[in-house]
Amino acid sequence: DIQMTQSPSSLSASVGDRVTITCRASQSISSYLNWYQQKPGKAPKLLIYVASSLQSGVPSRFSGSGSGTDFTLTISSLQPEDFATYLCQQSYSTPYTFGQGTKLEIK
Amino acid sequence: EVQLVQSGAEVKKPGESLKISCKGSGYSFTNYWIGWVRQMPGKGLEWMGIIYPGDSDTRYSPSFQGQVTISADKSISTAYLQWSSLKASDTAMYYCARRFVGGTKDAFDIWGQGTMVTVSS
Q1: Is A30 helix (H, G, I), strand (E, B) or coil?
Q2: d(CA B96, CA A84)
Q3: Omega before A95 cis (within 30°)?
Q4: What pLDDT is recorded for position A107?
């Protein structure tokens, strides 16, 4: 299985901050990388697919980049509703493994 | 509206069997894979397997192969996840999700609300 490692595991930030979350794959996955947002008690929500494409309806303050083994999710200006857990997922080969998550908390 | 609606929470004893469901609506159920994802309490997401309702082609994660069975009944647009003998370690939230595959996009774009399974003696 391809291992996905996110950093940091948790992050404190303030409304208006720019934040970046990193995801690293244990082998090259080209651009087959998705990002999800999960709020407590809720199902995950797709934000970004193929590393940098924004899912319909997702605000443009979210962006993704990277290819190969290293990827980033950036939120350009944090809003109150963005405090959540963010997870990456590779869709290069089954099983489509997830990262362990990055919990974004209010400072 | 495109949606997946899962069956309700379950409380079972070790050794019991269980089948939970995921009903799709608002789209052509037979043309999209459905996946199952486990989330143990306070933990991350684990990809369990996927099924293509059109022909019941099923793929399992090696971690879940032999531990669960994924099936679908396309006549009623419903996918299932079942256990023949539950263990306490099966206690978790289980999500179904629609797999969208198109071009280079391959992601779970629609999720069910989750089914909490609690296994306790």
Answers
A1: coil
A2: 20
A3: yes
A4: 87
